[in-house]
């Protein structure tokens, strides 16, 4: 009897532990695995549907027939489509995204080289977007239908409507050519620093700080500030509009009226209580904005000769380098998946009801 109760007690303790502690993590990783599997399946199908011949992309269109057939078999293209997919799945899970036809490097190595540039640019742009866009949205909501609100809405409308490449060229003419406030739109660093800076993270702002090379840091900042500011215009416009919408919803809630009746200061009501509750839906908006900047900075990277992932994928697509295109697509898709799932986890930090 004691042994039976003991076993039952262990089972109950394990069930309680799994439900309260382990289940959220199991659910998180199972969702991650299923979504990533779907992403790999989609990229595989797209790769097979493209009109380019993967063998000709590797060998060229003048390769002998015997070499073509040998390479065709070596690449596993003679196998059933299901077998090819599982070969592809195994390669990706082992970090093998193939070899780039254009650069002759492993796609994994290329992505490790190009992605930090985009990550640095998008991170700085998102930080600008949060620091400027969220306060703008709060001010617009508090002053609904007044001149402050109209000004923020016009600013956001221009941010959504104006082509980024046009804004970039205007900004280069004004801030570089005429005012000389920023560095030339030619990459991430001047030549004098590019080959002497130790590459630790491959993000130049961080690497210059780690090296304590303040002149190189100033040069890197002068290169990144203009493209990051232009890229942040989109996030500022979007975050200000969404913050305004969320704040209007919160300012009409009963707890705001109650706080005013109790004599709580208007500053505390707006910036602590209302904005605190608005942070819950803002988490997803910020995550999606960040992901969009990570994969949507192609035009900015092209105009400023920024060696980022968006430019890498675009150049690979123009060269029919499908290994590079699909490898970059997988990375971008994985970023979206991780940011979405991370925002779901952060809900539990900002909203106790989600627990």
From TrEMBL:
Membrane topology of this protein: Multi-pass membrane protein
UniProt keyword terms in alphabetical order: Cell membrane, Membrane, Transmembrane, Transmembrane helix, Transport
Residues that span the membrane, as ranges: 25-46, 121-142, 154-176, 220-239, 279-304, 324-347
Span of domain ABC transmembrane type-1: 115-347
Protein localization: Cell membrane
SUPFAM superfamilies xref list: MetI-like
CDD domains with a match to the protein in the record: TM_PBP2
Family per similarity comment: Belongs to the binding-protein-dependent transport system permease family.
Protein name: ABC transporter permease
């Amino acid at each position: 009897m004691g042994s039976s109760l003991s076993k039952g007690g262990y089972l109950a303790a394990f069930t309680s532990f799994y439900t309260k502690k382990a289940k959220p993590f199991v659910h998180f990783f199972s969702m991650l695995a299923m979504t990533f599997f779907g992403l790999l399946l989609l990229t595989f199908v797209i790769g097979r549907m493209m009109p380019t011949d993967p063998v000709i992309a590797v060998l060229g269109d003048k390769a002998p027939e015997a070499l073509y057939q040998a390479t065709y078999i070596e690449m596993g293209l003679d196998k059933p489509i299901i077998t090819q997919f599982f070969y592809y799945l195994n390669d990706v899970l082992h970090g093998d995204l193939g070899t780039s036809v254009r650069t002759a490097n492993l796609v994994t190595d290329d992505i490790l080289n190009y992605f930090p540039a985009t990550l640095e640019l998008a991170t700085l742009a998102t930080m600008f977007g949060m620091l400027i866009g969220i306060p703008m949205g709060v001010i617009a909501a508090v002053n609904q239908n007044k001149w402050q609100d109209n000004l923020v809405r016009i600013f956001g409308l221009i941010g959504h409507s104006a082509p980024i490449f046009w804004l970039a060229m205007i900004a280069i003419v004004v801030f570089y050519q005429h005012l000389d406030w920023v560095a030339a739109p030619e990459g991430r660093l001047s030549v004098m620093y590019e080959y002497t800076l130790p590459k630790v993270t491959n993000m130049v702002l961080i690497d210059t700080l780690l090296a304590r090379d303040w002149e190189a840091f100033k040069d890197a900042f002068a290169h990144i500030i203009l493209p990051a500011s232009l890229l942040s215009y989109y996030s500022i416009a979007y975050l200000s509009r969404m913050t305004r919408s969320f704040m209007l919803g919160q300012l009409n809630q009963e707890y705001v009226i109650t706080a005013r009746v109790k004599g709580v200061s208007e500053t505390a009501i707006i910036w602590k209580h209302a904005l605190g509750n608005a942070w819950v839906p803002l988490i997803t908006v910020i995550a999606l904005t960040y992901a969009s900047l990570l994969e949507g900075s192609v035009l900015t990277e092209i105009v400023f000769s920024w060696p980022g992932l968006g430019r890498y994928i675009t150049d690979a697509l123009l060269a029919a380098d499908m290994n590079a295109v699909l490898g970059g697509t997988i990375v971008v898709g994985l970023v979206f998946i991780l940011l979405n799932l991370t925002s779901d986890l952060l809900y539990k930090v900002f909203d106790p009801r989600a627990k």
